[in-house]
Task: inverse folding
């Protein structure tokens, strides 16, 4: 029988939740890296036992961790078992060096972006928000970082090199940080076209490359953001998350700061599909594993009040690719609930029926084993959940 | 042999106890101590000072013989009691956060 492994990153460590295909009884492992902010963990589609993790701290900066056994043990990449013993018996490793490419050959001398106060501000590396392993090579992984940039490692996370064409393509000086920082939080790889990658940045917008990351273009036409001086600007939009179904790589769904949108032409044009949502502010958005027109969001009251409307935690599902939404409430708290669901904290498994998962800033991780019809908490008292990913295992 | 006390999270990262010992030839300074720490425990690279700027991370401080040396130039020698190993050098994380 198939199994699932849920990877939950929290403000104070990582947790691994495992279950069989029924998704009723769960084993909980953790905290891994206790006390550290675990922004994101994700497994390799090419080798499910290979998991990458972003571990960071306001005190000590960024660490990259890797597991080659499904999360049982971890190393900082660069410490293969054969060379793990350094002086004093300690492991060797230096996998946390993220240096922006400013070389004249590839980096272009772009060094500033717009800051909160409107002045230009130098790019400063702060943390890795999102790790996206290659679809085919376990040793290749992408990292979306704050201040916004895209890095790639081709050696299992040991050495990182910036895909500087993104930061240097020309609009960088108009990017600006959202309240959470100027983060590159979404990376989508296209299984049908290895040269195509989508990324999204708060607050710059969505971007696409069609040549493996050398050149990029903004794909924000159709977005309307009242909170920026030019609501239809080419860049400057606070995109919260973007999702795609693997079988339809040209169709994208977006949860923006406000507004839920879709694009049917690889991001060239977006149209709003918020429809009857009680509020179209939110962070997460995801697509059903087997129904490419079935999508999920968790509406949040507003940008000033990051909690569900009326204290009711409701997932909204559209089976029509947007516009027509139904509230999914069975098993979710319908009073006095004031948690948030952050942008990387929803995932779907590929079992039949599709499982849907999300984590909250209140420390709950919920699962629905029936595509959203009913929900139950896997865990209820974790630190604030920053990210949720799920692996479907044989 | 000098003695260095690390913050708890860095002990976990380097898989060491509260105190580590380092062999340093030449002046014992912030720079030479962190150089020696990073050489002996490569997993600490980037955690005490930034990879690129080499600046001390702002939430970390260096205390020697009850004195704060954090704002001293990186090549300022620590007191003889640190250089001789009589007293440990304390690398302390700010008391902040939750």
Result:
């Amino acid at each position: 029988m198939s199994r699932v492994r849920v990877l939950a990153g929290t403000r104070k460590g990582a947790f691994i939740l495992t279950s069989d295909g029924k998704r009723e009884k769960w084993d909980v492992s953790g905290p891994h890296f206790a006390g550290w902010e675990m922004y994101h963990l994700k497994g390799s589609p090419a080798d499910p036992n290979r998991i990458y993790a972003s571990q960071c701290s306001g005190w000590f900066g960024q660490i990259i961790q890797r597991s080659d056994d499904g999360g049982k043990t971890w190393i900082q990449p660069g410490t293969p078992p054969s060379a793990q013993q350094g002086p004093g018996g300690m492991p060797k490793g230096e996998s946390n060096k993220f240096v922006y490419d400013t070389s004249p050959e590839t980096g272009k001398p772009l060094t500033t972006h717009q800051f909160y106060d409107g002045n230009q501000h130098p790019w400063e590396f702060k943390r890795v928000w999102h790790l996206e392993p290659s679809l085919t090579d376990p040793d290749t992984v992408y990292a979306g970082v704050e201040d916004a940039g895209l890095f790639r490692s081709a050696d299992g996370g040991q050495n990182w090199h910036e895909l500087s064409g993104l930061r240097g393509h020309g609009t960088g000086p108009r990017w600006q940080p959202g309240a959470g920082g100027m983060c590159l939080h979404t990376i989508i790889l296209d299984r049908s076209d290895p040269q195509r990658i989508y990324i999204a940045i708060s607050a710059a917008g969505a971007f696409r490359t069609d040549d493996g990351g050398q050149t990029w273009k903004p794909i924000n036409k159709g977005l309307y953001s009242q909170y920026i001086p030019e609501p239809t600007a080419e860049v400057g939009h606070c995109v919260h998350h973007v999702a795609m179904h693997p079988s339809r790589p040209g169709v994208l769904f977006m949860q923006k700061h406000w507004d839920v949108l879709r694009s049917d032409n690889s991001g060239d044009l977006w149209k709003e599909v918020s429809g009857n949502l009680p509020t179209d502010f939110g962070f997460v958005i995801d697509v059903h594993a087997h129904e490419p027109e079935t999508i999920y969001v968790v509406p949040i009251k507003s940008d000033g009040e990051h909690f569900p409307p009326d204290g009711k935690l409701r997932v909204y599902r559209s089976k029509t690719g947007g516009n027509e939404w139904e509230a999914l409430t069975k098993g979710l708290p319908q009073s006095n609930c004031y948690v948030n669901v952050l942008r990387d904290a929803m995932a779907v498994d590929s079992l039949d029926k599709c499982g849907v998962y999300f984590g909250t800033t209140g420390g709950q991780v919920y699962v629905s084993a029936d595509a959203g019809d009913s929900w139950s908490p896997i865990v209820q008292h974790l630190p604030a959940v920053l990210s949720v990913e799920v692996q479907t295992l044989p | 042999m000098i003695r260095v006390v690390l913050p708890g999270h860095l002990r976990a990262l380097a898989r060491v106890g509260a105190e580590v010992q380092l062999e340093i030839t030449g002046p014992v300074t912030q720079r030479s101590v962190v150089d020696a720490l990073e050489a002996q425990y490569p997993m600490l690279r980037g955690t005490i000072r930034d990879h690129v700027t080499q600046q001390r991370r702002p939430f970390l401080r260096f205390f020697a013989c009850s004195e704060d040396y954090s704002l001293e130039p990186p090549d300022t020698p620590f007191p003889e009691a640190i250089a001789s190993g009589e007293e440990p050098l304390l690398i302390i994380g700010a008391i902040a956060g939750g």
User: Anything to note?
Assistant: The first strand of chain A starts at residue 3 and ends at 10.
